[in-house]
C-alpha cells in the first residue's frame, strides 16, 4: 500500500514564524500535491509538483512556497505565518501513467494553528 | 473560474436505501472525474475514477455516472450501511499527468440504522 506520511499531525506556531510542513511518500510517485482544507471551502490546491525540482502554482499559492529536492519528499513552506493560514494541510501523491490523472493518495493531514 | 459544487446540505438516509450524491461543475472540461471518501481526522481515500468517454462505472455497491453535457456526476451507494457514513468528495482532473486536480467541498452522508 502507498504510504504518504506527513511529519506532524498538529502544529501550533506564532504569527510571523517560518513554518515547514514535510511530506514523504514511499511509492516512487512522480506527482505530489499540497492542499488546504477549510470548512465549507473543501480542498484547495496550493502547489503541486510533477517531477523533482519542478513546481506549479495551484489556486491559492500566495503566502506559500514549496521545495522538491528529492522525488519522495515535498515540503510546504509558510514564509511568514499568518492567522488566516490556520487550516488542515493535506499532502498527496500520484504516479504518472501517461493517461492523465491517477487517483491521489493522501496523508492524514497536519492541523496547523497560527496564533 | 473553475467551480465544482456538491450537495451543500448533509444527506441523511435510512439504512438499506440508496444514497445519491451530486457533483456539478462549470468552466471546466475534465478528462476524469474521481470520487473520494473522507472520515473525520483522516485524509481522503480514493473510491472510483470515471473517464469523460465513460457513462457509468460500478464497484461493488458503488455506482458513478458522468454526463459531460450536463456537466454532472452522480454517485450512488446502494444498500447503504451505517459504515458508509462519511464525507464524499468529487474531484476533476485534466488530460495531462501534470494537470492539477480540483475538489468540491464534499457532502456529508449519514446512514441511520
Descriptive report:
The complex is a heterodimer of chains A (115) and B (113). By secondary structure, chain A is an all-beta fold. Chain A is built from no helices and 11 strands. Chain A is globular, with a radius of gyration of 13 Å. Chain A starts with a strand and ends with a strand. Chain B is mainly beta and 113 residues long. In chain B, the strands form 2 sheets. In chain B, strands 2, 4, 5, 9, 10 and 11 form a 6-stranded mixed β-sheet that branches. In chain B, strands 1-3-8-7-6 form a 5-stranded antiparallel β-sheet, with no helix packed on it. The radius of gyration of chain B is 14 Å and the shape is globular. The mean pLDDT of chain B is 91. The chains are: A mainly beta (115), B mainly beta (113).
Question: Which descriptors would you attach to this protein?
Answer:
heterodimer, A: 115 residues, mainly beta, seven-stranded mixed beta sheet, four-stranded antiparallel beta sheet, 11 strands, B: 113 residues, six-stranded mixed beta sheet, five-stranded antiparallel beta sheet, 0% helix
In short:
The complex is a heterodimer of chains A (115) and B (113). Chain A has 115 residues and is mainly β.
Q: Any chance you could write out the topology, listing elements then pairs?
A:
The complex is a heterodimer of chains A (115) and B (113).
Chain A: E1 4-6, E2 10-13, E3 19-25, E4 31-38, E5 42-49, E6 56-57, E7 64-70, E8 73-78, E9 87-94, E10 105-106, E11 110-114
Parallel strand pairs in A: 2-11
Antiparallel strand pairs in A: 1-3, 3-8, 4-5, 4-9, 5-6, 7-8, 9-10, 9-11
Chain B: E1 3-6, E2 11-14, E3 19-26, E4 32-38, E5 45-51, E6 56-59, E7 62-67, E8 72-77, E9 86-93, E10 102-103, E11 107-112
Parallel strand pairs in B: 2-11
Antiparallel strand pairs in B: 1-3, 3-8, 4-5, 4-9, 6-7, 7-8, 9-10, 9-11
The pLDDT mean of chain B sits at: 91
Query: Which ranges of chain B are low-confidence, i.e. pLDDT below 50, for 5 or more consecutive residues?
Result: none
Roughly how much helix do the residues of chain B carry, as a percent range?
under 10%
As an assembly, this protein is heterodimer
Compute the separation of the termini of chain A in Å: 37 Å
**Mean pLDDT over all positions of chain A:** 92
Number of strands of chain B: 11
**What is the overall silhouette of chain A?**
globular
Amino acid at each position: 500500500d502507498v504510504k504518504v506520511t506527513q511529519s506532524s499531525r498538529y502544529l501550533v506556531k506564532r504569527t510571523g514564524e517560518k513554518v515547514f510542513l514535510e511530506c514523504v511518500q514511499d511509492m516512487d510517485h512522480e506527482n505530489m500535491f499540497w492542499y488546504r482544507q477549510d470548512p465549507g471551502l473543501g480542498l484547495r490546491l496550493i502547489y503541486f509538483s510533477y517531477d523533482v525540482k519542478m513546481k506549479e502554482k495551484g489556486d491559492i499559492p500566495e503566502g506559500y512556497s514549496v521545495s522538491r529536492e528529492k522525488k519522495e519528499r515535498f515540503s510546504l513552506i509558510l514564509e511568514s505565518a499568518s492567522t488566516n493560514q490556520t487550516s488542515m494541510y493535506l499532502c498527496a501523491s500520484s504516479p504518472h501513467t501517461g493517461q492523465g490523472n491517477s487517483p491521489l493518495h493522501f496523508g492524514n493531514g497536519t492541523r496547523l494553528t497560527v496564533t | 473560474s473553475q467551480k465544482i459544487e456538491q450537495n451543500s446540505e448533509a444527506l441523511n438516509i435510512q439504512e438499506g436505501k440508496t444514497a445519491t450524491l451530486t457533483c456539478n461543475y462549470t468552466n471546466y472540461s475534465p478528462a476524469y472525474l474521481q470520487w473520494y471518501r473522507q472520515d473525520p481526522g483522516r485524509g481522503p481515500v480514493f473510491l472510483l475514477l470515471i473517464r469523460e468517454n465513460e457513462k457509468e462505472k460500478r464497484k461493488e455497491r458503488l455506482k458513478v455516472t458522468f454526463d459531460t453535457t450536463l456537466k454532472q456526476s452522480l454517485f450512488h451507494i446502494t444498500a447503504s450501511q451505517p459504515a458508509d457514513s462519511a464525507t464524499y468528495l468529487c474531484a476533476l482532473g485534466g488530460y495531462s499527468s501534470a494537470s492539477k486536480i480540483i475538489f468540491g467541498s464534499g457532502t456529508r452522508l449519514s446512514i441511520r440504522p
